[in-house]
UniProtKB/TrEMBL annotation:
Family annotation (SUPFAM superfamilies): Ribokinase-like
Underlying gene: rfaE1
InterPro entries on file: Carboh/pur_kinase_PfkB_CS, PfkB_dom, RfaE_dom_I, Ribokinase-like
Entry keyword set: Kinase, Transferase
Protein name (record): D-glycero-beta-D-manno-heptose-7-phosphate kinase
Record-annotated Carbohydrate kinase PfkB domain positions: 13-302
Gene Ontology MF terms: heptose 7-phosphate kinase activity; heptose-1-phosphate adenylyltransferase activity; phosphotransferase activity, alcohol group as acceptor
CDD domains per UniProt: RfaE_like
Gene Ontology cellular component terms for the protein in this record: cytosol
Pfam families xrefs: PfkB
Amino acid sequence: MMAYPLEAVSRVKVLVVGDIMLDRYWFGEVERISPEAPVPVVRVARREDRLGGAANVARNIVALGAQASLLGVVGSDEPGTRVRELAREAGINSCLVADPETPTTLKMRVMGRQQQLLRVDFEETPGLACLDKLEAQARQLMAEHDMLVLSDYAKGALAQVDVLISAARVAGVPVLVDPKGQSYQRYRGATMITPNRAEMQDAVGRWSDEDDLQQRAQKLRKELELEALLVTRSEQGMTLFSERGREHTDAYTHEVFDVSGAGDTVLAALAVTRAAGLDWYDAVLWANRAGGVVVGKLGTSTVTAGELA
């Protein structure tokens, strides 16, 4: 594999648009079971907030040595303020739309003995007026960037994703999409989509073998007018489908500690290496390596250019 193209990556500008969330962790010790119910009692010793969703993609892009702008919807609340603070600290150019009617998406995790004991989610779909503002801002920002990344967590920020893809095509900006749901027609015209194994099955059904997967993947790629389609397959590695056919890379061997946010890291690495001039398969190799490193870390984390190099 060629050396990590750090100098070229440092000139790359990526616009990330999508569902922004705050990942909140409460770490503590578990020493007894509650007398009120058969559940552990966690004595919280430490609290930590991290950027999640599209914000974690942007955070990874900066960690990998490139420049990132982040566009999404947050509430006019304390978690929204934390998202802005964390983005600023990470060196991300924030272009956030504030929705006074909708809370910031928050995932709160209670951790004991390095294990997740409970997750509580707070989320609501953003209003139409906010989505119109997001679309208008995205159109303005596209021309200033080398790549558009759409991070879809099905929280509502990308309800008009087809409009964003069309605008990017007009602007001549490549589009990478991390998709959700079963209706992939909404991603028609993107440059690449990166479904995981379960998401691919939702889109094309269960395949019987590798030949069957190849036929289904290439059919979907042509129907959606994609340049490439990457299926991320966890311990089975990653499989790229393009005009060149099928190209597979085995999983980058690493101790798996926590897979949360690994897809964000893969998406970020694909974006920066492709925008830096690598072909799709070389970009996939670096994305595979980055994903392999990040699953060895706890919670939504980043991989740095130094770790890859």
